[in-house]
Amino acid sequence: MRRLAILPLLLLMTLLFPLREAAADTNVARSATPSASYTSTWESVAAINDGIDPPRSNDTVNRRWGTWPQTGTQWAELTWPATQTLRSADVYFFDDGGGVRVPASWKLQYWTGSAYADVPGTYPVAADTYNTASFAQVSTTRLRVVLQSGQGSVGLLEVRAFAPDTGGGTSGWNPPASLVTPLDEVWRHVESTYPNPYGFRNYGWDQIMANRGSINYCVRWDSSATVTAAQRDQIHAALARQFKKWMDVMAGHNGWPYAEVPLKVVGWAVRDRAQLQWSDTSVDVYVNNIRENAPQCAEPCGRFFNQSGNYPNCPGGASHHYDMSLWLTAGFSGGAGGDWGQRVGSEYYMSNLNTASMHILLHEIGHSFGLDDFYDWTPTGVCCFLMKAGSATSITDFDAWMFRDWWRHLKSRYGL
Ligand SMILES: [Zn+2]
């Protein structure tokens, strides 16, 4: 009987092993920022890494990236905040049977740090399916899909870029060798200049952990302008997109428990209700509750005022609480950020709703998670990064590792 029992087990292992191998590659495309040589105004380059598997090459349902009427060589690219190790990629071509067709040929290029280099491989061209290119492993922050047009313009519906899940990558504390010294300097600077870095308990980290993986915002509309429902939703979407850039730095890293951190705007604060041109009740509205000479959402609902995480006097209950405020001030240039949220100019925000990296806001969100300014010193060997104001306009590898360093030092407070 014992011998018989072994046989099914061996069979099971044989069957499972190839499946486990196949599942070991992770699609890292979704944490990248997409860009392209050209995008038709009615299409969207965001389509290429939105995670939606297209139903067919002539996708009339989901957003698409297309270059009509441009022809010749066109490209779309994924840029990551941190170095990725890649060993295969899938592309799904857009082909509407008219002006946009599958390409005559395509190839991948990766960024070496100073130039684009071709990725040697075979590049199949088929409609209505993913086309897979496998290649020797490359480590890079950018992967470019270069398309040569054939019978029409070209386009893509989705790009997947796969990294081997070897337990390496950024799953643990393993910053690139060149960043070890500057990261060490930054953390020692934090310890010597922050009044209470380990005792303070209202970092963005604490807020997300208290909510079990989400974040709530109040918009402080510190302006006399009116706001339509569409603008309200765009303000929310832009904030969520920018916040996600920092959260993507953490996905899968060093015990961080959340692949996604949903962001909800639960409240709006204004001077005059008539400024808000909607009548639905999707957000709480707080009228003429003035603090710091600006409207704010009710204090009993704010995490800043209730750091225990309990909101007994919040009218809608705890689900209507807000962790941070997005404070948008007319005529304000520059920014401010802290555990209470972020403050930027309302004109800056409204004119950058669709900007890939709203860098002032990103910088201020960094402060909300503990990251410091670098007005008076620069860590060894790093010139340009988001938290050194004016030197970079997106989250760099160094910013990403400084961010992860905060998690490394705080995670034990959550039992992780
Ligand atoms: Zn700053």
UniProtKB/TrEMBL annotation:
Q: Which domain of life is it from?
A: Bacteria
Name the Gene3D superfamilies on file. Galactose-binding domain-like
Signal peptide region: 1-23
Its keywords, alphabetically, are:
Signal
Name of protein? Cellulose binding domain-containing protein
Give the organism the record lists: Nonomuraea wenchangensis
Q: What is the lineage of its organism?
A: Bacteria, Bacillati, Actinomycetota, Actinomycetes, Streptosporangiales
